[in-house]
User: Which sequence fits this backbone?
């Protein structure tokens, strides 16, 4: 046995089972990955064998939602287990102060904070996007090791700049590595796994790729391969297909490194995305309506799976979940005491014991933005059970959808009647609660 283990009792539906497990945790978050941009989710023009394999070997979550339809808010929810506006990040954090719409609560405990107290080594590789300076950099917020990019997006995947500024760091040191960002993050994650595999403590690795966020910039050899195989594709779509396939290959290498280190059976791997695919950039959300920036399902429902060989069975679930659920879930599995408020729900019962969760739970979305389409205002959505009330800009009326009768939201109805009124009341209660942010600078 290569790692110090503790005994955890997990109660399954069929009885009491004792497992030796304090798993390593590898949480892979990709950026703007469309719900339809996996072979296993219906894509016919791209090949994602490594992600398809993950989806088939664990629990595939068919109704899993990002906490927002853009980057920073979802990441704030992942780190804190809170709704993004309660964590202080209702919109995108940017290096330009007049176009930055959030500030992560510096006092909120984070997922790596909790896991460190439970005996985990904590590391992050890749895109942070929750602050550019102390107290909101990864090393300030619970990660012992950081190797990645502080900013929102890269203007070029080889140059790694944003608006001419270099946000690449190794811990607090400015670095200027050579290579495609996806390849760099893959290698850095593999290096960390190899280094930690034979140590005495379990590890938590948060691997956050920039890809497939625009600019859509696959390596040329990957693009040539796709164009030869799929000559019918437009140039824009071919670039996106190659970009996703290159990302899939990198994730496959990370998963292979876990196997090669001999820790696969004691490693919990999670895959998800921070929001849906960007339709103007030829990304696909399959049959779901809309995409990134929308509160239609295509903007917020994301491909997600959880793999823990021998512990989580290979199957599918339609029980709803959200990004903010990862914190309470992983803390329960790791035996970490959560001693601050969270809005997420633990999904451990669903993952480990075939539980039914809370199919009637309420889930709320908020996004604030400052360009001419949004003018600094927020827009919202709320789902409870099969009912969803939503808008896609602050200036359009709410619309009501029955997701059981109309799963692709092709015929939304006016927000009138008792159900719409009940959802509006829940949303107003949330807004009152989120309006108290005394620490916001």
Assistant:
């Amino acid at each position: 046995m290569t790692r110090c283990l503790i005994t955890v009792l997990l109660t399954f539906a069929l009885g009491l089972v004792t497992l030796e497990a304090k798993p390593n945790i590898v949480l892979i978050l990709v950026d703007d990955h469309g719900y339809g941009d996996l072979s296993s989710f219906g894509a016919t023009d791209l090949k994602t064998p490594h992600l398809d394999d993950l989806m088939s070997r664990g629990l595939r979550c068919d109704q899993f939602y990002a906490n927002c339809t853009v980057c920073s808010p979802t990441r704030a929810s992942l780190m804190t287990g809170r709704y993004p506006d309660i964590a202080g990040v209702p919109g995108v954090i940017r290096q330009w102060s007049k176009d930055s719409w959030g500030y992560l609560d510096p006092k909120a405990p984070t997922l790596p904070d909790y896991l460190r107290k439970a005996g985990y080594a904590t590391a992050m590789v890749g895109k942070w996007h929750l602050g550019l300076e102390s107290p909101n950099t990864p090393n300030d917020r619970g990660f012992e090791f950081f190797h990645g990019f502080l900013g929102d997006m890269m203007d070029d995947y080889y140059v790694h700049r944003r608006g001419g500024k270099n946000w690449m760091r190794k811990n607090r040191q400015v670095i200027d590595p050579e290579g495609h960002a996806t390849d760099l993050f893959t290698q850095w994650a593999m290096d960390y796994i190899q280094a930690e595999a034979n140590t005495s403590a379990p590890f938590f690795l948060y691997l956050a790729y920039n890809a497939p966020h625009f600019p859509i910039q696959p390596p040329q050899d990957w693009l040539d391969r796709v164009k030869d195989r799929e000559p019918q594709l437009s140039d824009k779509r071919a670039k996106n297909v190659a970009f996703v396939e290159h990302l899939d290959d990198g994730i496959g290498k990370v998963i292979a490194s876990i196997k090669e280190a001999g820790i696969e059976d004691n490693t919990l791997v999670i895959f998800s995305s921070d929001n849906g695919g960007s339709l103007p950039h030829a990304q696909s959300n399959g049959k779901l309506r809309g995409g990134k920036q929308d509160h239609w399902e295509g903007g917020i429902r994301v491909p997600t799976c959880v793999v823990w060989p021998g512990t989580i069975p290979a199957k599918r679930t339609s029980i709803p979940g959200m990004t903010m659920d990862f914190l309470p879930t992983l803390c329960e599995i790791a035996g970490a005491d959560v001693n601050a408020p969270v809005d997420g729900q633990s999904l451990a019962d669903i993952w480990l014991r075939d539980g039914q969760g809370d199919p009637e739970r309420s889930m709320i979305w908020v996004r604030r933005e400052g360009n001419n389409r949004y003018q600094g205002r927020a827009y919202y959505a709320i789902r409870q059970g099969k009912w969803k009330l939503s808008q896609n800009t602050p200036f359009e009326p709410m619309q009501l959808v029955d997701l059981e009768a109309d799963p692709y939201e092709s015929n939304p109805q006016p927000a009138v009647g008792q159900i719409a009124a009940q959802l509006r009341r829940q949303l107003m209660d949330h807004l009152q609660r989120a309006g108290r942010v005394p620490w916001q600078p």
Observations:
- Confidence is low (pLDDT under 50) at residues 1-20.
- Residues 235-260 form the longest helix (26 residues).
- The domain at 23-361 is CATH 3.40.720.10 (Alkaline Phosphatase, subunit A).
